[in-house]
Amino acid sequence: MGSNGQSAIKERRPSREATAGSAARSPDIPCAPHPRVLLLNAGYEALTALTARRAVVMLLCGKADVVHDNPELHVMRSETREVRVPSVIRLREYVHIPHRAKVPMTRAALMHRDGNRCGYCGVRATTIDHVVPRSRGGEHSWENCVACCERCNRKKADKMLAELGWSLRHKLVAPQGRNWRLVSSLREFGPHWEDYLVA
Ligand SMILES: [Zn+2]
Questions:
Q1: Which residue ranges does the record annotate as region Disordered (predicted)?
Q2: 124 C-alpha to center of ligand 1: Å?
Q3: Beta strand 75-77 with 82-84: parallel, antiparallel or unpaired?
């Protein structure tokens, strides 16, 4: 993917900030970044969320087309033209994404699966516990790991649940769904994204 033309595109600041001068850098004035843009494969599968700048570059290079505009008007400007920042764009050519049967387990992904709650007591989780302790052959897997609070983690140490009389608040399963990883990494959805992300 070439980076040609990137430097020629300038973000136009909202007029509210343009008049603020040096005060625009003050931390109490919120900056209004352009919204992210959902990139779809040529077959309409969601791929990733791009920065507005990257999305506009892809449009200008002819690599992608607009699928949905953003109802809020965000404009980026090059020397010669203005481009509206869309909400959803689609690649002109299909890119092959290797299929991964399982979502890789990371700390952040596990916390997301468990809603940041301790799997034993339900308070805010700060660590990860191996249900069957590693010292007893427990695996580092979706099915054997659970979000956990400090207190439960300390109490449990290398014991089995049966030894403590504890039980899990929910069943431990690997997350399913094509878009799980992308959805879990997004803070919010843009306009029309739901049509492509909720599988
Ligand atoms: Zn706990």
A1: 1-28
A2: 8
A3: antiparallel
| CA 67 to ligand 1 center in whole angstroms | 46
Q: How far is the CA of 182 from the centre of ligand 1 (A)?
A: 28
- Based on the domain organization, do 115 and 81 belong to the same domain? no
59 lies in the same domain as 28: yes
Residues 121 and 84 in one domain: no
- What ranges make up the beta strands (E) of the chain? 10-11, 37-40, 46-50, 64-69, 75-77, 82-84, 86-91, 127-130, 145-148
pTM, rounded to two decimals: 0.57
Structural domains counted in the chain? 2
pLDDT digits (tens, 9 = 90+) for 11-23: 554 444 433 344 3
Q: 104-155 pLDDT, tens per residue?
A: 788 888 888 898 999 999 999 999 999 999 999 999 999 999 999 999 999 9
Measure 142 CA to ligand 1 centroid, in angstroms: 18
User: Ligand 1: distance of its center to the CA of 152 in Å?
Assistant: 4
Verify that 10 and 39 share a domain, yes or no: yes
Q: Give the residue numbers spanning the domain of 117.
A: 107-164
Comparing CA positions, the residue from 50, 169, 196, 190 lying closest to residue 113 is 169
Q: Is residue 118 part of a domain?
A: yes
